Amino acid sequence: MNGINVKAIFVGLCGLALGLYIMVEILLARSSSLGQLYLYLAIAAFLFGAVSPRPAMYVMIICTGYIDLLKRLMVLGGFPTMTDVAYVLAIPPLLVAGSIISVFLGMVLGRDAITRDKIISLVVSLLVVGITVVGTIFGESDSAGLGKMSAIVNQGFYAFLFFTIPVLFPGDESKRKLLQFSFVAFIPAVFYMFWQRKFGYSDFEYRYLMSGLTIEVKNLWETMGQVRCFSTFNGAGTASTLLSLYVLYCFVPLRPGNARPTTFQRLGKWALAPLFFIASYFTIVRTGWACGLGGLAAYFMLATKFRARLGLLLAVGCFATLVLSAPWILKYNMVPKAETILQDIALSATNDPTVKRAVVLGTAMDRIHGWANLTQEPRLWQPFGFSAAGMSAKDTTNDQFHWGHDALIDSLIKFGYVPLILGGLFAMFLLNRLMRYMFSLPRNALAFKTTRLCLALTFGILVGAMGNGAQFRNFPQNLFFALWLAIPFSTYQEAMRAKREAARLAAAPADPSAGPDPEPPPARGRRPLREFERPTPAL
């Protein structure tokens, strides 16, 4: 049409009209204009995940550390509500949801073939999500509506990463880049932690904490003379857990192409470790510190097969000993006595409010009570959870009684010991297969390094969950737990697929229609031999 691109003009006019509509909606918002903007960002996140699933995963990594900053800024644009908060919190899961749909449609309708590995990945994801959804719906919960939906998303939805990661990030190098990006993305949050420690909360952060939209307002009265920092994360617990775990990453050499790092590169990465550690210390959350120590210990034990088996036995033995000794610890008031001794030492050694807060062991007593219930409360051990037995977790003898805070007790209440034992046996089977594969690799192989790192980080989250079950429920720990398991799962699938393909090619019979093998070409500079002619001997 005389050089006029009608399609481009039509798309441009539609985009302009949509942009004007969104701008008017935001400016006329009755609650928070930023909250209205976040609604459209959530819709855009879903579309972006569906159109560009791989870049969407990188955006999701950024959201894990900085999505709460968007929530805090809402107070600058009006009077936010819980609905506005829900718009912000919907962005990460909608990014994942879009990528799930993209991968699934590519497998069913696109060029990607439906393979055995993809079906296994999808079945595993659906199984985990289905179990957690059933446990959340029929389990004890004080929330309804958006709260119930949030609980369902947080307690299983990210298991779909087992389905998307193998497709979006094939090969060891692409997985290395994703891990590297997650580490680099948290460096600005580390420096903001130091800023928050030096200057305290900003004005908009105070306003957000006092808005009634977050439980982190407790940071204002739990300070004991020092602000509990949480940087750009959604809470001090999240900041402590992730920053403590990423101290380990500072010591793992993952270079492009599995190249050997130079001395300068190695020292530069090591120099970040104290910054991550100190930033975690500023949160005053001991569960996160335990996650970091657990990850470091697991990485050391996963160096060899013998150490890995020994480490598993020690971990199970230590936790079993702690559970069995919990009633004895309560009987003799061991925790209050230890707290008194630690406070005397802290007061005589330093006047730092952070140290004083760190030696307050009130929450440790709650954990000990929960572990003691495992041996003293037979009601906990229902075959299929409290709901199936017609019980309620709220039916207790007094208001001060709590069943526990750890993931084990949460699982017993929601699912019961039968699904828990079956799930544990299945997890042990998968872990055994994965570790057999990992230790069959050369120690300097990139696949070995990434698998070892991800398993160590996963174990760190698991250590924290044994003291605080929120490590499995809260974003972004739940996302990283699924991601750090999905990466080794994908690596194992790729190796087994390559092994099956090699075996198939080796076992394939020769094709008779191909004819005899062609003769090698004659030597250069010599004419081909005629029939019945002998070659001339070399002089």
Automatic annotation (TrEMBL):
Transmembrane domains' residue ranges: 6-28, 37-67, 87-107, 119-139, 151-171, 178-195, 275-300, 312-330, 412-432, 453-472
Keywords: Membrane, Transmembrane, Transmembrane helix
Stated name of the protein: O-antigen ligase domain-containing protein
Residue spans of biased composition, Basic and acidic residues class: 528-539
Entry annotated with the keyword Repeat: no
Superkingdom of origin: Bacteria
Protein's UniProt keywords contain Nucleotide-binding: no
Organism: Luteolibacter ambystomatis
Spans annotated as Disordered: 503-539
